[in-house]
């Protein structure tokens, strides 16, 4: 498959990134940062999660964030729900977002540690939720965590992952995201994986979600792109990670991913300097240095114009 000349990038920092921060981020700061991301040109932003506030207190203000952010009308906002109860709560403010993400771990052990349910129990609930989401006129996206490896079980079988993806698609998901939850992928396997995924799921948007835990995130994104993947998720400032297990550091930095794509002549629709400005503002809000390269180096001058 030929390399795509244009890609979509969903910014997941306001949910996937913020949820791992130990110090409470004020709601006003979250709103200000999301608004800055909207001005950078993101067509898709993941902004909130309807999980129990005692489990992830950092995201307890999701409704307030949704009510106060001001992004362009064409920006699609996504929320994540862990189960049917979370979906019930999300639908109380159904007019505030456009997409709902549901999820499962391909690894049985990781799924039980993450959501305290078996994969079969999670998927039974996901089947129900997907149909409800579609019936509400919302886009349904499914996420499969530990798609490339599990810190507890090791190798995760490719066929198992794609079987779960097909089940999501049959339930109504129009996008399947494959998560490298603890940074266990490598470029050779990313190429093999996305070649197989795109062949098996021709009618579904296939999305790559890499973490930079072991420094291979951008290389994996490049391999996925070369395999034909045109949809990615990333987090400004390289925020994020996975609470299970400890040490699973953040997503690919959005500004680094955009910089790489622009240098390769791949369009993103994003204003790179504004993405970097938003990441630097997040660094200021959090009061610590973030780990993306572009925060320090800035854009390469001839790639600095909006794409």
UniProtKB/TrEMBL annotation:
<dbReference type="InterPro" id="IPR043594">
    <property type="entry name" value="HMGL"/>
</dbReference>
<keyword id="KW-0479">Metal-binding</keyword>
<comment type="similarity">
    <text>Belongs to the HMG-CoA lyase family.</text>
</comment>
<feature type="region of interest" description="Disordered">
    <location>
        <begin position="1"/>
        <end position="24"/>
    </location>
</feature>
<dbReference type="InterPro" id="IPR000891">
    <property type="entry name" value="PYR_CT"/>
</dbReference>
<keyword id="KW-0456">Lyase</keyword>
<dbReference type="InterPro" id="IPR013785">
    <property type="entry name" value="Aldolase_TIM"/>
</dbReference>
<dbReference type="GO" id="GO:0016829">
    <property type="term" value="F:lyase activity"/>
</dbReference>
<feature type="domain" description="Pyruvate carboxyltransferase">
    <location>
        <begin position="7"/>
        <end position="276"/>
    </location>
</feature>
<dbReference type="Pfam" id="PF00682">
    <property type="entry name" value="HMGL-like"/>
</dbReference>
<protein>
    <submittedName>
        <fullName>Hydroxymethylglutaryl-CoA lyase</fullName>
    </submittedName>
</protein>
